Amino acid sequence: MKEIILATGSPHRKKAFECLDIDFVTESSDVEEYFDGRPDDPNALVSHLAELKAMSIAKNHKQGIIIGFDSVGWFEDRVLEKPKSREEAFGRLKSLSGREHQFYTGIYMIDVGAGKVLSEVVKTDIMMREVSEEEIDKYLDQDPNYNTYALGYDPLGHYSCTFVERIEGSYNNFLRGIPLEKIVQMFWKLKQE
Questions:
Q1: Cβ proximity of 100 and 77 under 8 Å
Q2: Mean pLDDT across the stretch 120-131?
Q3: How is the chain split into domains, by residue range?
Q4: pTM confidence score
Q5: Domain 4-192's class?
Q6: Catalytic residue among 40, 70, 141, 143
Q7: Is 137 a catalytic residue?
Q8: Angle, nearest 10°, between helix axes 133-142 and 86-96?
Q9: What integer pLDDT is reported at residue 37 of this predicted model?
């Protein structure tokens, strides 16, 4: 099998990818995510950033399959990035309480030697239950890395795992930040082309 390189430094994505039980390595890209003319649409944004990340790694390889990723949250017609402070995380979680929001992940896969490229965007709808300010504080006290996810909370750990009432769409996309089922489909598509 060709070498698989994930264009990410995320330990969460690395751990999730290990579920596929295939050999891979990771390389962090040096892509600047904030730039003039950056798309406001979540589909376009994650697709573009995933491509930039994959391409930044692919330029250093003659063979292999490079996979770039990018994820953002989406709420009230705006992109949600990783919160920069506890106060921002608190305010975000308070505004998401009892409301639906989305989580988008772009995937850009390059078979460098064959010159093949596949691109996908996966969207997951998340309904958060009503949470109190005390519950938000409890989570933020437990998790000093509140900025792990673009949404501002960690759906797999700490008290915030109780915040979500319903998920529609990719379970892996939301809970792991990497839609493994879509990646497997893309691998098969690359193999068949």
A1: no
A2: 97
A3: 4-192
A4: 0.92
A5: alpha beta
A6: 70
A7: no
A8: 140
A9: 85
